[in-house]
Amino acid sequence: MDNGIILLKKLISIPSETGNEKVICNFVYSLLKKEGFLVQKISVGNRFNVIAKIGKPKVFLQAHLDTVPPFIKFSQDEKFIYGRGACDTKGSAAAMITASLELAKSGVKDFGLIFTVGEEVDFTGVKKLSKYNFPFVIVGEPTSLKAVNAHFGILVFKITAKGKAAHSSLPEKGINAIQLLLETLNRVNKIKIFPESILTLAKIEGGIADNIIPETASALYSMRISPNDKKDYIKEFKSALSKYTKVEQILNVSSVNNKIPSELSFFKVGEMLKGSTELAFFKNGVILGPGDIKFAHSQDEKIEKKELKEAVRIYSKIVENFIGSNLAT
Ligand SMILES: [Zn+2]
Q1: How many whole angstroms separate alpha carbon 139 and alpha carbon 276?
Q2: Residue 141 three-state SS
Q3: How far apart are the first and last CA of the chain?
Q4: What's the rounded Cα separation, in Å, for the pair 179 and 282?
Q5: How far apart are CA 97 and CA 83, in angstroms?
Q6: Residues of the chain with CATH 3.30.70.360
Q7: How far is the CA of 297 from the centre of ligand 1 (A)?
Q8: 264 CB contacts (<8 Å, ≥6 apart)?
Q9: Bridge-partner residues for 43, per DSSP?
Q10: Where in the chain is the domain with CATH 3.40.630.10?
Q11: How much distance in Å is there from the Cα of 172 to the middle of ligand 1?
Q12: Which of the four, 142, 216, 255, 276, has the lowest number of CB atoms within 10 Å?
């Protein structure tokens, strides 16, 4: 079996749902350490990110090691490898490590690797890396090996109304939180959203029973914001509030629109993603990885063996292009 496939089999066989990445992180840490990389653990709660370097890196290959549930065991046929994480993103991780070990063996240095935890829930791992100054990062997400330099941002926020409970036969004694929330939501509906951006009212909660005036109510919104959209939405939402309602930011991931450097000019540029990635947390980089995003998170998660092999070749070539270059760091 090909080295990339052997490694991907190992990675898929270690369950690593978000929150439970410690075993897989230790595996990757030990593997890279044994091969002569300078390896660091960056603690994230009960688990950790891994940073590995050889020399003074001009480029980093990066992938998250957590997956969504449920665990799906490794299997394969002629063409594909199946299992949880096959394309999102253990396929990228396996190709990056395989390429790096080959490069290191042939004496290539000045590149690094970053492996993170917590991507599938709230980006908690990559957020811990903000103090590091990585010159350029290749983020391994399934892009069918196209270089993607732009993606939407995410803004998740919750509007909560606080009223006063009372018996529903005594409306003058209570303040109806659902009513108050609806008034605020009507004003939110009137906010002009940039045409490419998307606002979704995702969840509404409130009330207890037919004979109680509801004391609290809330609405959860999710926004996908185009990199071309410069509007300050939090400010807009605040202006829709009344004295009974407040807005709370749950998640804010900025949009990305990076330049593709000359080191990557030989790549096909992929379409802008409407989802967010860890690239939003790095100063500069692109997203590039094997696999098709449509199989991510699915019961049928898979990656083509040919593409995995090609990814190993491509990651090596990228590293070589960067270390041979004069890219300002
Ligand atoms: Zn994912």
Answers
A1: 12
A2: coil
A3: 38
A4: 43
A5: 19
A6: 153-253
A7: 6
A8: 147, 286, 288, 318, 321
A9: 48
A10: 3-152+255-323
A11: 50
A12: 216
- Give residue 167 CA to ligand 1 midpoint distance, Å: 46
Ligand 1 ion: Cβ-proximal residues, 5 Å cutoff: 88, 296
Centroid of ligand 1 to alpha carbon of 78 (angstroms): 25
Which contacts (CB < 8 Å, 24+ apart) does range 11-14 have?
A: 11/65, 11/85, 11/90, 11/93, 11/94, 12/73, 12/74, 12/81, 12/83, 12/84, 12/85, 12/86, 12/90, 13/73, 13/74, 13/83
pTM of the predicted protein model: 0.87
Question: Architecture of 3-152+255-323 per CATH?
Answer: 3-Layer(aba) Sandwich (3.40)
CA distance 303 to 89: 10
Determine the Cα–Cα distance for residues 323 and 304; give it in Å rounded to an integer: 29
Q: For 2-35, write each residue's pLDDT tens digit.
A: 899 999 999 999 999 999 999 999 999 999 999 9
What's the gap in Å between 17 CA and the centre of ligand 1? 11
Query: Which numeric CATH code is attached to 153-253?
Result: 3.30.70.360
